[in-house]
Write a structure and sequence with these properties.
With 276 residues, this protein is an alpha/beta fold. Helix content is 32%, strand content 18%. The chain binds thiamine diphosphate and magnesium ion.
C-alpha cells in the first residue's frame, strides 16, 4: 500500500476521470509539501465528494452542497490547517451555489477542486448546472433548456483570489495547477477540473475535451481581469486551461485581528488550560 492510499476501494466506474484526478491530487499534495496531519479534506455528496475516503488526511464529509460552510467553520477554528474541498459541479455550483458566491466574496482561505463532469454522476446522469445547452439526458429528454452556469466567469467577477481550470487528461498541467492552488496564500482558490464521466455524459467525452483544451500561454498575465474574463467566456472549439486569474486580496481569516497571534483552538486551549 502506498503512503497516501487507504483500505477503502474507490466506488467509481471503470474509465472514470476521478482515478486520474485522485492520483494527481496525491502527487500535488506531496509536491506542494502539504503536511497530511494538517490537511483537512472536506466534501459534500456525489462521486467527486468520495475522494477524501481514498487518500490520507483528516476528513469531513458533509451534506450535499454544504462543503463550503463546513470548510469555513474548520478554517476559522484553526486557520493553520490546510483546508481543501473536493466537490462535483452539482455539489458546488448547484446545491452549493449560494455558498460558492458568498465564500468567494468573503475570500475564505480554502482550496476548492471541482470535478466538473457536467452531469450529476452519482444519481445516474441528470443535467447539472454546467451541462451544455441541448444535452439530452434520461430526464432532459428534449435537451437541456437552461443556459450553463459559468463558474470561472462568476468567480472572476467576484475577484476570487485564484481562478483556474484544468483537465484530467493533461496530468502535468493538472498537477501544476493543483500545486499553484495549494501554495496560494491569498484566500479562496478555485480549480475547475474537466473530468469525463464515461457512464453518463456521452457528449463531453475524453476525446471531446482533449481536442479542445488549450493551455494559456506563458505571456498570459493573470492579473488582467478583462483578459481573464474573456478567456473564461470561451467554451467551444477551444477551452482555455491554466491559471486564468489572480487578485491581490487578503484572506478573510488574515483580516481578523483576533486570529493574528493564535488560532481559535489555541486560544480555547489556553483558556481551558490545555486540551486533554
Ligand atoms: C439535498 C440533497 N439533494 C439531492 C441529493 C441527491 N444527490 C446526491 S449526489 C447528487 C448529484 C451529484 O452531482 P455532482 O455534485 O456533479 O457529483 P458527481 O456525482 O457528478 O461527481 C444528487 C442530486 C442529495 N443527496 N441531497
Ligand atoms: Mg458532476
Amino acid at each position: 500500500m502506498k503512503l497516501a492510499e487507504t483500505d477503502t476501494k474507490p466506488a467509481w466506474c471503470p474509465g472514470c476521470g476521478n482515478y486520474s484526478l485522485l492520483k494527481t491530487f496525491d502527487e500535488a499534495l506531496e509536491e506542494a509539501g502539504v503536511d497530511r496531519h494538517k490537511l483537512v479534506l472536506v466534501s459534500g455528496i456525489g462521486q467527486a465528494a468520495k475522494l477524501p475516503h481514498y487518500t490520507r488526511g483528516n476528513v469531513f464529509n458533509g451534506l450535499h452542497g454544504r462543503a463550503l460552510p463546513a470548510a469555513t467553520g474548520i478554517k476559522l477554528s484553526n486557520h493553520k490547517l490546510e483546508v481543501t474541498i473536493t466537490s462535483g459541479d452539482g455539489d458546488m455550483y448547484g446545491e452549493g451555489g449560494n455558498h460558492f458566491l458568498h465564500a468567494i466574496r468573503r475570500n475564505i482561505g480554502v482550496k476548492v477542486f471541482v470535478h466538473d463532469n457536467q452531469v450529476y454522476g452519482l444519481t445516474k446522469g441528470q443535467a447539472s448546472p454546467t451541462s451544455d445547452l441541448g444535452m439530452v439526458t434520461k430526464i432532459q429528454k428534449h435537451g437541456v433548456m437552461s443556459l450553463p452556469f459559468n463558474p470561472l466567469a462568476i468567480a472572476i467577477l467576484e475577484e476570487c483570489s485564484l481562478v483556474a481550470r484544468s483537465f484530467v487528461g493533461e496530468r502535468d498541467h493538472l498537477r501544476a495547477t493543483m500545486v499553484a492552488a495549494l501554495k496560494h496564500t491569498g484566500g479562496f482558490a478555485l480549480v475547475d477540473i474537466l473530468q469525463p464521466c464515461p457512464s453518463f455524459n456521452k457528449q463531453n467525452t475524453f476525446k471531446w475535451y482533449k481536442q479542445r483544451v488549450k493551455p494559456v500561454g506563458d505571456d498570459h498575465d493573470p492579473r488582467d481581469k478583462e483578459v481573464a474574463l474573456r478567456l473564461a467566456l470561451r467554451w467551444g472549439d477551444e477551452i482555455p486551461i491554466g491559471v486564468l486569474y489572480r487578485s491581490e486580496r487578503v484572506s478573510f481569516e488574515n483580516q481578523q485581528t483576533v486570529l493574528a497571534e493564535k488560532s481559535l483552538v489555541e486560544q480555547y486551549a489556553a483558556a481551558e488550560g490545555g486540551i486533554s
